Amino acid sequence: MNWRRLLDHPSLALGLAATLAFALLGLASLIWTPYPIADIAISRRFLVPDASHLLGTDHLGRDMLSLIMAGTLTSFTVGAAAVAIGVGIGVPMGLVAAMWGGPVDWVAMRISDLAFAFPSVIIAILIATLIGPGATNAIIAIGIFNIPVFARVARGGALALSSLDFIGAARLAGLGKAAIAWRHILPNIMSLIIVQGTIQLSLGILAEAGLSYIGLGTQPPATSLGLMLRDAQSLFLIHPSLSLLPGLAIVLIVVALNIAGDGLRDALDPRLRRQELA
Questions:
Q1: Other CB atoms closer than 10 Å to residue 258's CB: what's the count?
Q2: Environment class of 270 (CB within 10 Å of its CB; exposed 0-12, middle 13-18, buried 19+)
Q3: What is the domain partition of the chain in residue ranges?
Q4: Per-residue pLDDT tens for 67-89?
Q5: Which fold has domain 65-277?
């Protein structure tokens, strides 16, 4: 994959730069934040932005910048872990369905349809009922929803390649279905998986925010952008910045990921590249 050529696409470069900036902001919270996120001081609550608190403080006197840094890390962590579950289970499922076909394909796709039938919020509610709410359960819920998405992407890509000459040559060379899937199919559908991964990461961040907002995601003393929105909802008319800041962070992260995903699709799709050269 020629990264220099990929970064020649302005939308891709912009999306990746913005996404990287937010990711680094979140990662920085692992070693440093302006104030501890659990540093409660009622005497300094609702402070306006100044040199000491660049984004002000919340209703408990906690530094808003520190909370957004830690919340961004939580959002990326939950979204990325959920995508990893989807890729780790869904891609092999899709490849098996495409390569073996018949009853195997039918069973895999029916399992996929069953997972699609239950939105991540419903799955999270069921999981929370059984083992309680939390970030780990949100990862499981969102990850289960991602499995059929990646299964269908992998299956579709594998079916499109299975009739090409180089796959036929691999069969004639005596390679088995598993070897063909691993050596020839998977490397050639990685671009599809990467693009879908950026989309699912943005959806996972939104889902985590929604689950935390209704109390099924991240739980105190940890924080997330969705949890910040929930804590600030009753104070919107008094101090709207408490809701607007984490809400704006979610919007900017999702927009950056979507721009990066669109740029990756444009850069990696050979049909679009041929149109540019025509």
A1: 18
A2: exposed
A3: 65-277
A4: 999 999 999 999 999 999 999 99
A5: MetI-like fold (1.10.3720)
